[in-house]
Amino acid sequence: MVLMLAVNFAYMLLFAPQQEPVADLSYSRFKAELARDRVASVRMSGERVTGNFRDAVEIPADEGMAPVAYLRFQTVLPPVDDPELLPLLEKNGVELEAQASEKPTFWASLLISLLPWVLIIGVWVFVLKRMRESNGPGGGLFGQFRRSGAKLYSQQLSRVTFNDVAGLAEAKQELGEIIAYLRDPRHFSRLGGKVPRGILLVGPPGTGKTLLARAVAGEAEVPFFTISASQFIEMFVGVGASRVRDLFENAKKSAPAIIFIDELDAVGRSRGAGLGGGNDEREQTLNQLLSELDGFEPHQEVIVLAATNRPDVLDTALLRPGRFDRQVVVERPDWRDRLEILKVHARKVKLAEDVDLTPLAKGTPGMVGADLEAVMNEAALIAGREQAEAIGNEHLDKAKDRHLLGLERKLYLSDEEKRITAIHEAGHALVAKCLPGSDPIHKVTIIPRGQALGVTLQLPADDRYHYRYGYLTDRLAISLGGRAAEKLIFGEYSTGAQSDLKQVTDLAEKMVCQWGMSERLGPVSLERGVEHPFLGRKLATETTFSEETARLIDKEIEALSRQAERRAENLLEWNRPVLEQLAERLLVEEVLDEGALTEFFAAANLRLDEGGSAEAKGQS
Ligand SMILES: Nc1ncnc2c1ncn2[C@@H]1O[C@H](COP(=O)(O)OP(=O)(O)OP(=O)(O)O)[C@@H](O)[C@H]1O
Ligand SMILES: [Zn+2]
């Protein structure tokens, strides 16, 4: 870095280029132009030649680019003298000015003579910095520089505000309280507000957790200390714990302040998990972190934010009251939020007047803020390469495709997949709606999450401990509703129902083997077999039952599943227009919550299930 700057500077002083563009010619091209009598004047200095054309000459630029017209050119003389050159110049009456090699100016020579020193000092500073940041357990020679790797963003530097964070309305609202507290702690506590110490930001990578934490610091105008938990433990044993201590010490000194720990799961995994007794260094670091979280005095106004996308693997000790006892969910954006995010990043680039970001926002389900930012950057690069005045719709489109090709995990759905997913999820939801005894639908979405392309989420109205037969057969039908809808609309199945099928088989197996719900097998518990002969799965732990029973179990599981499938198919067929409308709505909105669904179904004229569960019971 230091090196490049210095050299560039010297270069600029030596050969300050004229404003006009200068064509870089090969020597032979130069001679060709000369022979064609297109050169007006030449100035030689050492081996460098600059000059003017008589009229503008078009020189092809890089492949695929329009040629550029130049008035000036430069070239370099070959190392061996060219006897043809002077006669050629004279013959065409080219104005010639020759000069001994240019002398560097005073400042340039000063700079050049200082260059080695600049380099040495630069390297030294760099090394010193590294050592300070990563000093070993003993501190060694540079022990006096011991410091955590946490970066301090002073008040002036953390300019990020909620304005820069698009969407995430719920998260912002929840964090608003923290900001109020940090701005005026005394006032806040006088009102009797109890402030959480630690807040866990939970969400997939790139959804803006770090950005949000920074914005909290920016809004509250307090210093921001940040470290990634993986940095705690990358060095030597013992460093992690001491870094944690230093980080908290520093933050307390500048209180009110915010500490942000990214990738908390890197240190926060449950202790003792994993083979071979776990990782001492990590556990030490985690223990230190826990004790720091407990060690705040009431007047120390430090809030600890942490981010993770795996809250499930965290050590429960981290989640106890007084530690990270509050979770703020940072979700993947829906298209409206994606539009807002695109607008935020569009502020930094120049968009053409006619650009509409809405299609881009709608066409990028599954993308998170980081992706959208990358798309916007890519579009700016593409526009720049094409020497466009501003970013146009076509650049955005290209950038989107390019980014998608680069996405390793397939989070993005093609239009085709989106349609299939919408029909599939609408199928689940519609079947559930037509079975009055089933749980209310909390949410339907076609935003991909983890492995699932879409989700239909039902929440039980209250906690259930006992399940009626009818409730269970309803569940089977709902689970098969997605697949049945695909078949009805597209005439074929896709692979999207894999986990649905597993759910169905598991549940049906329990009904038959554990809950005695099969007429043919009777009121028996069949939890005795070892390996299920056909399903290849363990049914239970001990002994075996006869082969005949095993076959019967399979038959019964199949019968339950088929009945459920028929019910789902019937319901969907009866209500096919509603199914298609619902899928259409999903394609547009991506997420439908309980309110929207209730509203939608209220307007629909549904034909409900007609005592289907009774019929199913009779048939078995
Ligand atoms: N809601 C948003 N509004 C505006 N920009 C966003 C948003 N979400 C993400 N971004 C952009 O994406 C970048 C990356 O986001 P950030 O680092 O905050 O994600 P993260 O959730 O912390 O990811 P990770 O878990 O990988 O650390 C941000 O710097 C920002 O430019
Ligand atoms: Zn499904």
UniProtKB/TrEMBL annotation:
State the UniProt keywords alphabetically: ATP-binding, Cell membrane, Hydrolase, Membrane, Metal-binding, Metalloprotease, Nucleotide-binding, Protease, Transmembrane, Transmembrane helix, Zinc
Q: What is its main location?
A: membrane
Tell me which residues this entry annotates as catalytic.
Answer: E425
Q: What does this protein do?
A: Acts as a processive, ATP-dependent zinc metallopeptidase for both cytoplasmic and membrane proteins. Plays a role in the quality control of integral membrane proteins.
Q: Where in the cell is it found?
A: Cell membrane; Membrane
Q: How does it assemble?
A: Homohexamer.
What is the top EC class of this enzyme, as a single word?
A: hydrolase
Q: Which InterPro entries match?
A: AAA+_ATPase, AAA_lid_3, ATPase_AAA_core, ATPase_AAA_CS, FtsH, P-loop_NTPase, Peptidase_M41, Peptidase_M41-like
**What does the Swiss-Prot or TrEMBL cofactor note state?**
Binds 1 zinc ion per subunit.
**What family is this?**
In the central section; belongs to the AAA ATPase family. In the C-terminal section; belongs to the peptidase M41 family.
Q: Where is the AAA+ ATPase domain?
A: 195-334
* Cofactor(s) demanded: Zn(2+)
Q: Which HAMAP family match?
A: FtsH (MF_01458)
Q: Which residues bind ATP?
A: G203, P204, P205, G206, T207, G208, K209, T210
- GO molecular function term, any single one: ATP-dependent peptidase activity
Q: State which residue ranges cross the membrane.
A: 106-127
Give the source species.
Trichloromonas acetexigens
Which parts of the sequence bind Zn(2+)? H424, H428, D500
Q: How does the record classify its membrane topology?
A: Multi-pass membrane protein
Q: Name one GO cellular component term.
A: plasma membrane
Instruction: Give the gene name.
Output: hflB
Gene Ontology biological process terms, A to Z: protein catabolic process; proteolysis
What protein is this chain from?
A: ATP-dependent zinc metalloprotease FtsH
Q: What's its EC?
A: 3.4.24.-
SMART domains with a match to the protein in the record: AAA
